[in-house]
Design a protein that fits this description.
The structure holds two protein chains of two kinds. Chain A contains two helices and six strands; from the N terminus they run αβαβββββ. Chain A is of the alpha+beta class. The longest helix of chain A is centred in the first third of the chain and has 18 residues. By secondary structure, chain B is α/β, with parallel strands linked by helices. Chain B has eight helices and ten strands. The chains are: A alpha+beta, B alpha/beta. Chains A and B meet through helix 1, strand 1 and strand 6 of A and strand 3, helix 1, helix 6 and helix 7 of B.
């Protein structure tokens, strides 16, 4: 359940931004979460609802953009799609894969009100 | 000023910053520019009479009044950015002191504390060591470590399922580890959450005992991906179990092709020399890299 800690991190960034970019109310929060980010989305949503209480994001809607896992296959020399960290290359069956996408854990943008 | 919290430590408009430090901490808080108007006191961190710290006792909150005009603000920031900043601070602390730091992660009951006490007892004359112990509750583990004669600080996370870099920074203030020493950070027994949190360590070491399932590396791929080392512990019990060592290592390599595997038993002592030698090598490298 580290999702609650992640939500506290999200709120911290939002509150810093509220001062830096002069807004007082957040309408929507867009997050980008990769398949391999180790995040349970339901837990993240639950945690978000808890931590926004009494903050500039109290009324905010949470939008989550999930990104799929990709890896660089060394034998094939190209990027392939994978759905777990232990997948074999769908083309050649090798496990010599370097994960290149799906680790994202980012706050992308906010819709805010001055 | 507190080197851990950076800007968050300054008193904000007269609001106190309540750290519970065991040592005399009579610094002047620098009233440097503070960008945001939240009341970030640290009264949620509690310390007991034994010098163990307890987190998870509360949340800070904020409110800024205002008006309305919708717009989109690009953020593009890592959610773990705050933790990563603390981790960077810890990492430079370790580098400046020529320390070699390991973050030990595993399920509860894999034998982390036993491996630690054995490592400390056997290596006492080889290098200096100290320990940060993470658990949700109790100081039992720190007490087990202190019995071996090395310094240990217990961090209780309260409801938390992992240590974060901020907690470790506070623990360092209390622990005051020696220069050129090895620091073991024993994370909360959990193969999920600690994977995401960099503490500033040189390596994450995942400990798996052969009394667990051999498929744990693919059941908890994030952790075995994040770790550079996998220790297979309790190998003295292999004759009594149906644990396929080769299969387990294959699973680990599927998740992390570069993972280094050490097989040992903290009880019988088998395989320990490789582990001690590896630590000793890491410490020598850290001392060489230490700025003059």
């Amino acid at each position: 359940m580290h999702e609650l800690s992640l939500c506290e991190g999200i709120i911290k960034v939002i509150e810093d931004q509220a001062v830096a970019q002069n807004f007082t109310k957040v309408e929507t929060v867009w997050l980008e979460i990769g398949e391999f980010a180790g995040v349970e989305l339901n837990a993240l949503r639950f945690g978000f609802d808890v931590v926004i209480k009494g903050t500039v994001a109290e009324q905010a809607k949470l939008e989550i953009i999930t990104t799929e896992g990709t890896a660089w296959c060394m034998p094939c020399g190209e990027t392939v799609k994978v759905s777990t960290r232990y997948d074999a290359c769908p083309q050649c069956g090798s496990h010599q894969l370097q994960i290149t996408g799906g680790d994202e854990l980012r706050i992308k943008e906010l819709e805010v009100n001055d | 000023m507190c080197t851990v919290c950076g800007c968050g430590t300054a008193s904000v408009e007269g609001q106190g910053h309540k750290h519970s430090h065991a040592h005399d901490h009579t610094h002047d808080h620098e009233h440097h520019h503070h960008e945001h108007a939240h009341d970030h006191d640290h009264s949620h961190i509690e310390m007991d009479e034994k010098g163990d710290i307890h987190f998870g006792k509360g949340l800070g909150a904020t409110h800024v009044p205002g008006m309305d005009q919708k717009r989109i603000v690009e953020i593009e920031q890592n959610i773990l950015g705050e933790n990563d900043r603390y981790a960077m601070a810890n990492r430079s602390y370790f580098a400046e002191r020529g320390m070699f730091v390991l973050n030990l992660v595993s399920s509860p009951g894999s034998g982390k504390t036993t491996l630690l006490t054995r490592s400390i007892t056997d290596c006492k004359d080889r290098f200096a060591m100290s320990v940060i112990e993470g658990d949700q509750q109790t100081s039992n583990d720190a007490e087990r470590i202190r019995e071996t004669g090395v310094k240990a600080t217990q961090v209780n996370t309260g409801k938390g399922c992992h240590l974060d870099a901020h907690m470790v920074g506070h623990a360092l203030e209390l622990l005051e580890p020696e220069e050129g020493s090895v620091l073991f950070i024993e994370n909360v027994g959990n193969l999920v959450c600690p994977a995401a949190f960099d503490l500033g360590e040189a390596h994450k070491v995942a400990i798996l005992s052969v009394t667990e399932g051999e498929d744990k590396p693919i059941k908890y791929p994030d952790m075995f991906h994040a770790a550079e080392i996998m220790i297979l512990n309790k190998i003295d019990l292999l004759p009594y179990l149906n644990f396929d060592v080769e299969k387990c290592i294959d699973y680990a390599r599927q998740v992390n092709p570069n993972i280094r595997v050490m097989q040992l038993s903290a009880t019988s002592g088998e395989g320990l020399e490789e582990w001690f030698g590896w630590i000793s090598g890491g410490l020598e490298a850290a001392k060489v890299k230490k700025p003059a």
